[in-house]
Amino acid sequence: MFVLSFRASRRKIAAVIGVLVLAVVIGTVVVIGQGTTAASAKAGASLAASTNEERVAYLQSFGWEVETEPAEIVEVAIPTEFNEVYQNYNNIQKKQGFDLTDYRGKKCKRWTYTVTNYPDGQTGVRANLLTCNDKIIGGDISSTEMGGFMHGFEKS
């Protein structure tokens, strides 16, 4: 049988507790920081969107082939208050590591590309990228057909 005893001053105990608290805080910040770029990390893609090549490469990182030039470029205003439709859209964004709440009230751009390789050869499918300050902040894959669909960038 071993008996171990030690004597520590209050100052040493406080220092050890302080180091442990600091380690937990740093660990939490790292984990939260990784969650904000989940869509980028999954595909190993950059969120840079200052050039057409960067935007197309982002979509290609998910396996989407698109026409090289955007079909539409529109300035959009992210509303300050999200109605049910926008809340549902933001839920799609959250599932892929984005969150539009930080962009409420800001003007952004929506780059729309025609998808050429949607499964089953379906036509009328668009890839929408939302950008702000030349950075991808969200987007979707959607159908322009009546009763169409909308989902995140991951192929289902």
Describe the structure.
The chain has 156 residues and is an alpha+beta fold. It has one domain. It has four helices and five strands, in the order αααβαββββ. The protein has helices spanning 10-35, 38-43, 52-60, 84-95; strands at residues 72-77, 107-114, 125-132, 135-143, 150-151. The protein has a five-stranded antiparallel sheet with strand order 1-2-3-4-5, covered by helices on one side. The longest helix is centred in the N-terminal third of the chain and has 26 residues, at 10-35. The radius of gyration is 23 Å and the shape is extended. It starts with 9 loop residues before the first helix and ends in a 5-residue tail after the last strand. Residues 14-41 have low confidence and may be disordered. The chain crosses the membrane at residues 12-32. InterPro entries: DUF4830. Pfam families: DUF4830.
Cα distance spanning the termini = 60 Å
- Strand arrangement within the widest β-sheet reads 1-2-3-4-5
Work out the strand percent.
15-25%
Name the shape in a single word.
Answer: extended
Largest sheet: 5 strands, antiparallel
Tags for this model:
single chain, alpha+beta, five-stranded antiparallel beta sheet
Topology (elements, then pairings):
Elements: H1 10-35, H2 38-43, H3 52-60, E1 72-77, H4 84-95, E2 107-114, E3 125-132, E4 135-143, E5 150-151
Antiparallel strand pairs: 1-2, 2-3, 3-4, 4-5
InterPro entries: DUF4830
Pfam families: DUF4830 (PF16112)
Domain DUF4830: 59-141
